[in-house]
Fold this sequence. Notes:
Blueprint: H1 3-27, H2 38-41, H3 45-70, H4 77-102, H5 122-150, H6 155-169, H7 182-205, H8 210-224, H9 229-250
Amino acid sequence: MSRPTILYVLLAYGLSWCAFTPLALQGQGIISGVPAWLHLLGAYGPLAAAFIVTLLTAGPAGARELVARMARWQIGWGWLLVAALSPVAVFGLVVSVLRLIDGTWQAASGFGRVAELPQLGWLAGWAVWILTFGIGEETGWRGFALPRLQARYSARDAALIVGLLWAGWHAPAFFYNYERSLIAVVAFVVGIIAGAMVLAWLYNSTGGSVLATALWHGTYNAAVAGGEAVVAAVTTAAVILAFVVIARRYGPEHLAPRPRQMVAE
């Protein structure tokens, strides 16, 4: 990795962990009184790190280019629908199957739920997921790190590196928000890497649209974060299957039907 990428990773971890660490300490009973919404604030660590390093290495022009990719919405209605609704489609399918099994629509109530803001309805919660972990994480991991790694490696290898770094970024959450068993950790890492591959496909296919990846990421979180475990498990399995299909169809070099977005080191 280049020095700007290493600096980005250190800053992304450091800034986010300033929010995640107090929650982890509270989750272990060491301290108390930490507000739950701090978890949402930690989502902006990658975004802040991306802009700091971009300003240091490319100046205001580089920052403006990053903002342009964050707002890039003219990618075709098909890609916008894939970005915003493909996790919804999987969620709907799983919920429908559960309805046939148990006779209720209980699983559907989990969509858009934000545990840190329980007063929100599903639509507002969906928006919160996009505006926090969607925009916050994707500006950094896909908007900054991925294109720089793709300048040196194939899209598949770059996405793998990003996926491993991205998984490590979540580590404090296992002390207050995620199950900490070995099986849960391994499943999480595999799911994150598959997600990194799918997001690399979406980013490269849309000519480097951070907005597209933020929509997909936020919608995925809205579908799995507040619902039943089976919904999250099946949705994650669908993401893994999607990666396998993408890799077989487009190959490791680009993971996309178009030339990938490159950013000079």
